Amino acid sequence: MNAAAKVAAGQPLVVSSFPEWRDAARDLLLHGVAPELVTWNEHGTLDADLFSGAPDSSSSSDNAPAGVVPVEEAPPPHLPPSLLRIPRAFMDMLQSAACCRVPDRWAFLYRVIWRWQHGEHDVQSPADVDGVKLHAMVKAVRREEHDMHAYIRFRERPLEAGPPQFAAWFEPRHDVLPQVAEHFRNRMGGVTWMIGTPEASVMWDGATLHHTGPLMSSAADLDDAGEALWLTYYRSIFNPARVNAQLMQSHIPSRFWKNLPEGAIVPGMVSNAELGARSTGQAQAVGKKSGFTIPIAPADAQPERQQPSKLDECRRCELWQYATQAVPGEGPKRAQIMLVGEQPGDQEDLAGKAFVGPAGKLLDRVFEAADLERRAIYLTNAVKHFKWEPRGKRRLHKTPVQREIEACGYWLEKELATVKPTVIVALGATALKSVLGNGNAKLAESLGKAIRHEGRWVVTVYHPSYILRVPDEEAKRQAFNVMVEGLKLAKQLLERPPEEPPA
């Protein structure tokens, strides 16, 4: 019996893996079965009671949920199979979220794919009520994969015990064992190994991965003769003068310590450090040093790191994790005037273009009043990713901090080197700080003025969003006039010699 027939008969759908859910969801979509009509269960979660017997097939038509026609009597599928097209990236996201152990994961994923199939493509956006949960599930699964890569410890088994040569125990919060097994298969080559968890096990025989049920109960089932050598090495490199217990706990969550070999000896070493070993170890280390201390700036001591070549690959700050996409600048490659805003807004983040929202429409009015054409000006932002905070279903703008401005200064410098503008118009305080490279720059001190900076004129005006926010009509008019006069001044500066100050 297929999935739609089971729902029509009033039966729950019992699944335990993403392929099973995918096949069931496909059949339900073909027959137009709405999410609220489907009951999903994991294997082993059905409650047994007096009424849990098999349904009577003869009365399935009478017991069908409202709105569901029994499949045996139904017309052809609601949709032709050719219309069930899901983008690969979206399907990969659903497959990753399916590994997240939340009670309603199968029902939630079906609601998501139902909405997508009915044209609600915003369901994959972090601003959507289901989209934010979907992203959170994917993030939790990827975090668990990272933790399993980092904190799993293989122990060597005795040769007489036979394969596998190495074994490990881990207690994951989510169903990430298959993905992690692929990672270690690629990393460990032909060496045989096994990973055990409370729910399942996986074994690599050098050629094939074998997935089975649980074969171990805890890390105590493992015995490693070489572990004593590792603990001796760990004690020898432990420096009590530099121990920081809080930092260790923040880097490695407490749930991982019990399965780490060094977890049994770390508490004692930390305790000894606090009882006096810290000062003793530091004194001995200092006494062995000789020579002179050469002062060096922290920035110069950092190793050179490869910089991103594409804006979409930028990870220089954390804002990329929460934005839909990076928003590049746009305009002529050799524009004489460059406008630098603060950051993309909600609509810019979704569209991938600068100044297309309400602030962009107001900016068009300013261009018209200043007798400038938008297509002749290069438009960009000091920060390329949208920084926001949730308010209900809306994403509200949040001002970037100085470290985020400095991180995105790398891209603004590349734009300046490529476009080579004669005049830069800074829209607001954030843009002014970025252009001048000065976190202490004040908007009030430079508003409407022309400043000479690194061979270019810099004119500062209000950001269009300020005019949209200010409640007083007179203040709106004055701020609008400041923007118009600032752009007129920028236009005049194009015709002035660099040494001649503006009137």
TrEMBL record:
Gene3D superfamilies: Uracil-DNA glycosylase-like domain. Residues 328-484 form the Uracil-DNA glycosylase-like domain. InterPro entries: DNA_repair_put (IPR023875), DUF4130 (IPR025404), UDG_Type-4/5 (IPR051536), Ura-DNA_glyco_family4 (IPR005273), Uracil-DNA_glycosylase-like (IPR005122), Uracil-DNA_glycosylase-like_sf (IPR036895). Residues 52-72 have a biased composition (Low complexity). The keyword DNA repair applies. Pfam families: DUF4130, UDG. Keywords: 4Fe-4S, DNA damage, DNA repair, Hydrolase, Iron, Iron-sulfur, Metal-binding. PANTHER family: TYPE-4 URACIL-DNA GLYCOSYLASE, TYPE-5 URACIL-DNA GLYCOSYLASE. Belongs to the uracil-DNA glycosylase (UDG) superfamily. Type 4 (UDGa) family. NCBIfam families: SAM_7_link_chp, UDG_fam4, UDG_fam_dom. This is Type-4 uracil-DNA glycosylase. It comes from Massilia niabensis.
